[in-house]
Specification:
Blueprint: E1 8-13, E2 16-21, E3 27-32, E4 35-36, E5 53-55, E6 61-63, E7 66-69, E8 72-75, E9 85-87, E10 97-102, E11 105-112, E12 122-131, E13 134-143, E14 154-156
Antiparallel strand pairs: 1-2, 2-3, 3-4, 5-14, 6-9, 7-8, 10-11, 11-12, 12-13
Length: 169
């Protein structure tokens, strides 16, 4: 069976474990000593509400899906139509590739090809590494085109304190 989030890449170091997914290149789970630190999702589920997703080439929302860059206007599809927003970038549902793997780390890569509303060419790499200091995530983006391109990056981990909601703590 193929998981809705694609291949599951597990990395481990000491008592830490993280699971990175192929769809979106994000972090599905992270635990230390068996205690989950993320309110993630199951291997048989797709990410909901942006859980663990990578937000590139822009985090947050673009009102009406429009923006200006270097004197030109661009229009993105509205993927949050009820609020008239283009939300959380263009790579959340794309396939990423694990290009480097060790027991304690994985590097996920994706090429964002030009498309309507974002006619730019971007190479993206995200390294997830576990060490005695915890989880380190390093994002690198390379403009593969011939013109300047707008770029922003964010991540959407849902942290947990081990309770259903943080409002009760």
């Amino acid at each position: 069976m193929i998981a809705p989030s694609g291949k599951q890449i597990t990395i481990v170091a000491n008592d830490q474990q993280a699971v990175v997914v192929e769809v979106g290149g994000g972090l599905r789970s992270y635990s230390i000593g068996g205690r989950e630190l993320l309110d993630g999702y199951g291997a048989d589920e797709m990410s909901s509400s942006g859980r663990g997703q990578v937000l590139i080439p822009w985090p947050n929302r673009l009102q009406d899906g429009s923006y200006e860059f270097n004197g030109a206007s661009y229009q993105l599809p509205l993927n949050e139509p009820e609020r008239r927003n283009a939300i959380h970038g263009l790579v959340r549902w794309s396939a990423w590739s694990a290009t480097e793997r060790e027991p304690h780390r994985v590097v996920m890569e994706h090429i964002l090809y030009p498309q309507p509303g974002y006619p730019f060419f971007l190479g993206i790499s995200i390294e997830y590494a576990l060490s005695n200091n915890g989880l380190q995530v390093r994002t690198t983006a390379t403009n593969l085109g011939t013109q300047s391109c707008p770029y922003g990056s964010g991540a959407h981990p849902y942290l947990t304190l081990g309770t259903a909601t943080i409002e009760t703590v």
